[in-house]
Design a protein that fits this description.
98 residues; mainly alpha; 2 helices; 53% helix
């Protein structure tokens, strides 16, 4: 349980207002719905941040950073996999030609 968990109004079974797509959101700091979908329940927990506007902004920034890191990792894995497939194709072509 996070150190700020007692400040948050919702428990584990209810949807937190910072993650609820039907809850109103701030004009300056909109909810990162795409990033929340990318993380699909993983990533930082709202209860680990203070339940105020600054805490919400910090939480959204953490969600965006975590989603960006996950996307970068997935891209690196895809590039490595593609390089392995190309190397295997070159080895196979070399063996066929020799």
């Amino acid at each position: 349980m996070g150190i700020y968990a007692t400040q948050h109004p919702f428990g584990a079974l209810d949807r937190h207002p910072w993650n609820n797509p039907l809850a109103p959101q701030g004009f300056r700091d909109p909810r990162p719905d795409t990033e929340l979908a990318i993380l699909s329940g993983g990533g930082p927990r709202p209860e680990d941040f203070p339940f105020n506007d600054r805490g919400r902004s910090e939480y959204y920034a953490a969600v965006r950073a975590e989603a960006h890191a996950l996307q970068a990792q997935m891209q690196q894995i895809a590039i490595a996999r593609q390089a392995e497939e190309e190397a295997a194709a070159r080895r196979a072509a070399f063996l066929l030609l020799s």
